[in-house]
């Protein structure tokens, strides 16, 4: 029976990065993958959805008629779109495979990698079985990283048939643009898919928003910004609507929606996409064999360096990525995977710091976030100051003729304010958000960050003016542009 230094279960961003970091320490590593190499980081997830997003944004630009150009006979072939998306996924998977082959057993490098295709299950705390097409194999290791990710959540009573009532794993199986589509769930996946399908202009998109605001965890102004842009792009949002049932008919789906105010509505669609969150993959892992229990949410609880926090002191078993219940993001998964391997190799490393974690949301225009928002600070009773600066005043946005966007920065309320968070909407928001993540990470005061030069003309100049607004020194003044520049201070009420 083969005995490795490390077995990594799952090849998504968490598992792959754990394996590659372990390679740096010269360990012998086996990656076990039951389905797609790269997990949701590549297939039915981040890379495929972003490829589809980029194609849809290109199409939306080509379809514009308000800028002095007009394309001749613009058309789009769904089959070609899916083919291009699959090409992107394959390109990444071949890069991953090339690296695995480069470091496979017998190569003249320290450390070794091998990939086993099949589903892993613990037999005891140092042994797993791997069941694949070729049968079942038993493997041993000194350490393990569980990086099995998450899968789409299915609501009770909603019969997902994977053809007409689908989840995000089924999107690439569609054979044509649906004429009418209902998206259940107005979180990130729901809003991204609504953006993509409305960009292509081949589908009437209905978005079900039961909470009366899309992205319910974001501040109301950010949520309204996203809602308005979706509606401007043609998406029909059903605010405060709850899905009662979907009746299947031979040629259509009949959807019954109940609204908070008591009225109901019946709509007809061809496809319903359910995007109501993702649940961790802990079933069939044999966790009971190693005495590991999950939290109420089904996640694996980890300590700072990703070791399992478990009563049985399974200190050679780590977990990373979506399975851990932290933000379900590629960057978080990758970071945690690397950290787990550094700890396994007993190398000093930094503990995870989520305070400057950023998220990119692929809407039209894109939205990016880093650090905390007003909702979180109010819930924690933390006083703050916040400024909002519209792209309407930013020269680059004016030049792009694309001023729909904003920068919103929140700072602490002490004598030396420090940045706590930023939300940005508009073109290129995904490119400049990380600059503010650096500022949060470095913990500089507002005075210090205001010394930085911002190149002109750049959309990032909005950050500079927003920071200046927070210290009352902006070039354009809130008094002259009350719609475009806003400032607010918040303190918790003092209870008597
Ligand atoms: C539609 C969509 C779009 C997304 N877009 C973004 C984005 O733009 N940016 C971003 O940051 N994040 C995005 N995400 C989230 C991101 O993809 C995940 O956070 C990330 O992939 C999590 O990585 P992971 O390694 O923890 O898990 P996964 O990527 O899910 O990988 C887990 C792997 O483990 C395998 N596995 C499970 N159980 C076993 C077992 N018993 N044996 C062997 N193998 C097993 C699975 O087959 C899978 O390949 C998106 C997700 C989705 C669904
Ligand atoms: N760009 C990105 O970073 C990106 C893109 C896609 C996905 N992701 C990750 O994937 C995760 C999952 O995405 P998601 O959009 O599925 O989840 P989510 O948690 O972002 O949103 C789920 C939405 O579904 C709604 N909902 C829940 N139960 C419902 C029900 N029964 N009926 C109607 N609505 C219901 C919620 O109110 C919420 O609006 C996200 O948490 C995110 O971390 C990230």
Automatic annotation (TrEMBL):
GO terms for biological process: 2-oxoglutarate metabolic process. Residues 358-465 form the Pyridine nucleotide-disulphide oxidoreductase dimerisation domain. FAD binds at residues 50, 322. Keywords: FAD, Flavoprotein, NAD, Nucleotide-binding. Residues 4-337 form the FAD/NAD(P)-binding domain. Binds 1 FAD per subunit. The active site is at 456 (proton acceptor). GO terms for molecular function: dihydrolipoyl dehydrogenase (NADH) activity; flavin adenine dinucleotide binding. GO terms for cellular component: oxoglutarate dehydrogenase complex. It comes from the Bacteria. Belongs to the class-I pyridine nucleotide-disulfide oxidoreductase family. This is Dihydrolipoamide dehydrogenase. It comes from Saccharicrinis carchari.
